[in-house]
Specification:
Strand content: 5-15%
Helix content: 40-55%
Number of strands: 7
Mean pLDDT: 83
Order of helices and strands: HHHEEEHEEHHEEH
Radius of gyration: 27 Å
């Protein structure tokens, strides 16, 4: 990224060599600095939108929630500096057994669960951060059939029926696997594009003031 204080000082020296007064120089430099900040707001906003779209694609409102623009380094980053937002395994058994029926011998409870039917109405994660968080919570509170359908083989199309019981191990049975969500590559590419666009913009802004007087 361009060294903005250095570039602004170079503008000062150029204007001084052209005979401008100290007051006029500072007025011009302030205008140039403001233009650079305004340009970063535009380019940074575009970078932010790209990152949000990456978060939506991987259904990670946690990542979206941490995104911030750093005006000092002119880069996009996360508050924690973390680029991985992996979802841990999600045990489903206790939720599936809500309102379950008692086993005849009294040894526990059971429930027959329909699985494997493709879901055609899975909600989309919104690009709005708060909607995204709401959607994630809603997904985790969906009916057992829709939640468990996410972990059956993708080639399964017809509805099948399986039995969940209180005798099963909740740590191994009916568990949605962990989902790795690493945004390192996305952020590197986004920040590289942001850097290139800002360097070009800064160069054009400063050059316009140098050539304009």
């Amino acid at each position: 990224m361009a060294n903005i204080p250095f570039e602004l000082e170079r503008l000062r020296v150029t204007l001084r060599n052209k005979g401008f007064s100290a007051r006029a120089i500072e007025t011009i430099v302030d205008k140039a600095s403001k233009e650079i900040s305004e340009a970063f707001a535009v380019h940074g906003g575009y970078a932010m939108q790209q990152a949000i779209e990456a978060g939506v694609a991987q259904r990670s409102p946690e990542f979206i929630n941490e995104l911030i623009l750093n005006p000092n380094n002119m880069e996009l980053r996360t508050e924690s500096g973390n680029m991985e937002f992996t979802e841990p395994p999600y045990p489903m058994l206790s939720r599936l057994l809500q309102n379950a029926k008692p086993i005849k011998d009294g040894s526990g409870v059971y429930k027959v669960i329909p699985v494997g039917a493709p879901s055609t109405d899975r909600p989309k994660v919104s690009t709005n951060i708060y909607d995204a968080m709401k959607k994630l919570n809603a997904e985790r509170a969906e009916t057992a059939r829709k939640q468990y359908s996410a972990i059956v083989p993708s080639g399964s199309r017809a509805t099948e029926f399986r039995t969940a019981t209180s005798k099963q191990d909740a740590n191994t049975k009916w568990v949605i696997p962990a989902k790795t969500k690493d945004f390192s590559g996305d952020m590197k590419a986004i920040n590289k594009e942001l850097e290139n666009s800002m360097e070009e913009t800064i160069r054009d802004i400063l050059q316009s003031y140098i050539e304009g007087f």
